[in-house]
Amino acid sequence: MDSLIRILRNNSAIPRADIARQLCLSEAEVTAKIAKLEADGTILGYQAVINREQWDTESVTAVIEVRVTPEREGGFDRIANRIAGFEEVESVYLMSGGYDLLVIVDGRSLREVASFVADKLSTIEAVQSCATRFRLKTYKENGMRHALEEAPERLSVTP
């Protein structure tokens, strides 16, 4: 199963026949295994990795470190699920270290992200503090390298 998942993570659009050849299985076996992974919730969906500098140059992505007070019965889960419910939120992770939750937010502008933090995130009773950082440039995302500009060749300097 690990080989199948690795192939799909690298390119979920690869034809089933090609996957079958790589894994020495029949196409029907590959299709059945993928259907099982989708049915049991192992595969939650398929997404394209987008180069935002090409597609959406105006959007802003923020990484927000959130410290929270865990709830008595729900721990971090109920708070994390509440935060995940906001449409601006792309991802939420429980973390070890100096903060509890890592929240990834996409917005149309810095002001929109700031408004989300001020009006929605920081007003949740369990939220103690937030530290927001903004993505400036992407070099690699979800295992995919973004095209990097080649550095111009430097001319040698001689005295």
Q: Element order, helices and strands?
A: HHHHEHEEHEEE
Structural Rg: 21 Å
Number of β-strand runs: 6
Mean pLDDT: 89
How many structural domains does the protein architecture include? Answer: 2
- Flag low-confidence runs: none
Structural class: alpha+beta
Largest sheet: 4 strands, antiparallel
Helical residues, percent: 25-40%
Tell me the CATH architecture of the largest domain: 2-Layer Sandwich
- Output the CATH topology of the largest domain: Alpha-Beta Plaits
What is the beta-strand fraction? 15-25%
Strand order in the sheet with the most strands: 2-3-1-4
Short description:
With 159 residues, the chain is an alpha+beta fold.
Question: What structural keywords apply?
Answer:
159 residues, alpha+beta, Alpha-Beta Plaits, 2 domains, four-stranded antiparallel beta sheet, two-stranded antiparallel sheet, 6 helices, 21% strand, flat
Describe this structure in words.
- By secondary structure, the chain is α+β, with helices and mostly antiparallel strands.
- It folds into 2 domains: 2-39; 53-137, Alpha-Beta Plaits (2-Layer Sandwich).
- Helix content is 34%, strand content 21%.
- The protein has 6 helices and 6 strands, in the order H-H-H-H-E-H-E-E-H-E-E-E.
- The protein has helices spanning 2-10, 16-23, 27-39, 52-55, 77-84, 110-121, and strands at residues 60-68, 89-94, 101-107, 127-134, 140-141, 144-145.
- The strands form 2 sheets. The protein has a 4-stranded antiparallel sheet. The protein has a two-stranded antiparallel sheet with strand order 5-6.
- Helix 2 crosses helix 3 (27-39).
- The longest helix is centred in the N-terminal third of the chain and has 13 residues, at 27-39.
- The chain is flat.
- The model has no long low-confidence stretch (mean pLDDT 89).
